[in-house]
Amino acid sequence: MKERVKCPKSRAGVCLLDLVAADKAEYGSIPGRNPKSIPHWRPSEAVVVERFAGGVLSRKYRNAVLAVGPCRAALARCAGGIGPELRTRQSVHRKLVSAAIELGRVKSRVRWKPEEMAVLDRFARAVADGRILTARGAGRACADALRRLHRRYPKEFAGAPDRNETGIQGELWPRVAKLRYRWFNSHWSAAELALVDRYARLLIAHRFPHVSAASQACCEAISRLHAQLARRRGGKQPGTVRTLPGVFDQVLRRAKELAPFQIPHRRWTAEEHRIAARWTRKYDQHRRGRLRMNLLTIATLMQAELGRRGYYRNVQACVTEIISQRRALRGLAASLR
User: Which of 17, 124, 225, 243 lies in disulfide reach of 175, CB 3.0 to 4.6 Å?
Assistant: First the structure.
């Protein structure tokens, strides 16, 4: 029985760049070809295009690019058609997209209109004036306002999609920065960085169980700092100055600069694995009755040795590593039998 050989699927016309390349290959060798000399689309051609645009909307064709080939062939057969040699693939694609939008297709990558820009500017000023605490919060409110704008003027925004919060954030941040709002998207002051350094050192000294706890305390300290500065100047006390994610990034970055091996919840290095392997052998001796030290004692001594080498691991992490290495060794020994 002969084995069936699958033919590779053709990738022609799968994206717009393929259409551009095919047009260049077909028309590039014809001297004196002037695309502007092609006559206007005739009514019979518009009917064909509308039929295939309906196929795009009904998902018969996954996108307008895939409908270009059959539509172009139908244009060549239609009564009074111009012929495919004058209708380029790119022109057929543009006509298909335009017809699909007229039939109700939602546009993609629509440029921002002046009316939408005005809404963005309004919310950017609200962030800069302190009426909205963060640009993230302004993004949600701005999205609701833009949806109301689209519903109020359906003809002007026909086919335009509702703006998502991610796209709105990308437009809001530059506007807030241009308004020179001093807290958002700004450089950290020397006093703020001093607090970041202080809490990073406390984290390294194990005064906090993890980075999140140190960041929360640092964020509160920064807020107190700005509240004191505002009272001295006789101004209004600011709300959210530095967000917790922003402080977290600063504290973690500074702690890694000061002591990269002291941060909890990180991967074990090769040297740590070697140290753990030595203490794993001692635990194996204990399980065989050749050593009186139990697991907790061995893990505590291992933690102390790691600390002398500059690594931070709590006792439970050492216990887990010892047990994991012993299980791996026993599994290897069983596979070799």
Answer: 124
Query: Do 23 and 85 sit in the same domain of this protein?
Result: yes
Assess if residue 58 is contained within a domain: yes
Is 184 a domain residue? no
What do you get for the CA distance between the two ends of the chain, in Å?
Answer: 44
Does a structural domain hold residue 7? no
Structure token digits, residue 328: 């791996």
The DSSP symbol for 106 reads P
The confidence score (pLDDT) of residue 274 equals 94
Question: What is the pLDDT at residue 140?
Answer: 85
- Residues in contact with 259: Cβ distance below 8 Å, sequence separation at least 6, in sequence order: 204, 310, 312
Tell me which of 127, 158, 178 is where a domain ends.
178
Token code pair at residue 104: 């109700």
Burial class (CB in 10 A: 0-12, 13-18, 19+), 268: middle
CA-closest candidate to residue 258, choices 200, 319, 176? 200
* 202 part of a folded domain: yes
Distance, in Å, from the CA atom of 251 to the CA atom of 193, rounded to the nearest integer, reads: 9
Number of domains comprising the chain: 4
Q: Which residues of the chain have pLDDT under 70?
A: 1-14, 28-39, 79-86, 104-110, 158-161, 178-186, 235-241, 264-265
Residues in the chain: 337
Question: In this structure, what token pair is assigned to residue 117?
Answer: 């820009």
- Domain range for 252 is 190-258
Global pTM? Answer: 0.41
Pair 292, 317 in one domain: yes
Q: Are residues 214 and 160 in the same domain?
A: no
